[in-house]
Design goal:
The protein is α/β, with parallel strands linked by helices. It has one domain: Alpha/Beta hydrolase fold, catalytic domain (Rossmann fold), CATH 3.40.50. The chain is about 40% helix and about 20% strand. It contains nine helices and eight strands. It has an eight-stranded mixed sheet with strand order 1-2-4-3-5-6-7-8, with helices on both faces. It is globular, with a radius of gyration of 17 Å. It starts with a strand and ends with a helix.
Length: about 240
């Protein structure tokens, strides 16, 4: 399904029936990545999974990619669907998008699980963003990207340029304790203790600033420790938290 919003066309998927559950994938991921996590929509939930602007079947913005704009897109999607309050899971860039949603419109998020999302980009992250290229991804990851993004190499090149642009953006991902203090959602913050992008101290900063937050540091977890060997425990813990 598609929705024209904020100058782009947003692609989204709805699966299952029950309480609305928003899934926001990470940067360079797509909404359909929820299948790697759940396989089928969790019982009792209607899963809403958009492709962020420029990703998958969603068109790209003319200017730079901003997570703040992605949050506006998703909030507009919820308005279009008549969903006034939602439970949500956001991975990495999807978690950043969720933080923007929860600070801009706190009443729209009832509970959320924020995975590997920082309050700001440290310099080590910016250096990695500056190095984003096809060569840095490697052949295997490029093939996976081609399966996710129907625009092929041209779309992937655009996404890589967006990623490099994030390295020089300082106003978009810049959550202060006062702004995070506006969040009213019950929040589970999930970080791997071996995340190469974001030091685990950033998770502690989020936990200290978000009023109704809980912190889960995944031992031996890398960036986005929710798939593979961590998948079963994450699903059990996340759904237990959201359903509490």
């Amino acid at each position: 399904m598609h929705l024209a919003v904020n100058g782009i066309t947003l692609q989204y998927e709805i699966a299952g029936e029950g309480t609305p559950l928003l899934w926001i994938s990470g940067f360079m991921g797509v909404g359909a990545d929820w299948r790697y996590l759940f396989g089928q929509p969790p019982p009792g939930y209607q899963l809403i999974a958009p492709d962020l602007r420029g990703h998958g079947g969603s068109s790209a913005p003319e200017g730079p990619f901003l997570f703040r704009d992605a949050a506006r897109d998703v909030l507009a999607l919820l308005d279009h669907l008549g969903v006034r309050r939602v439970k949500a899971i956001g991975l990495s860039g999807g978690g950043i998008t969720l933080l923007h949603m929860a600070t801009a419109r706190p009443e729209s998020i009832g509970a959320m699980v924020v995975v590997s999302a920082p309050p700001y980009f440290p310099e080590q992250t910016r250096e990695m963003q500056r190095q984003m290229s096809e060569a840095a991804l490697g052949d295997a990851e490029m093939n996976r990207m081609r399966q996710r993004h129907p625009g092929g190499d041209a779309q992937i090149a655009r996404l890589l340029a967006m990623a490099r642009g994030l390295a020089e953006s300082y106003d978009d991902v810049s959550f202060t304790p006062p702004s995070l203090g506006r969040i009213t959602a019950d929040t589970l913050i999930v970080f791997g203790d071996r995340d190469p992008l974001y030091p685990v101290s950033l998770a502690c900063e989020l936990h200290a600033a978000i009023p109704r937050s809980h912190l889960w540091i995944v031992p031996n977890g890398g960036h986005g420790p929710i798939f593979g060997e961590h998948q079963a425990q994450f699903v059990e813990t996340a759904l237990g938290f959201l359903g509490a």
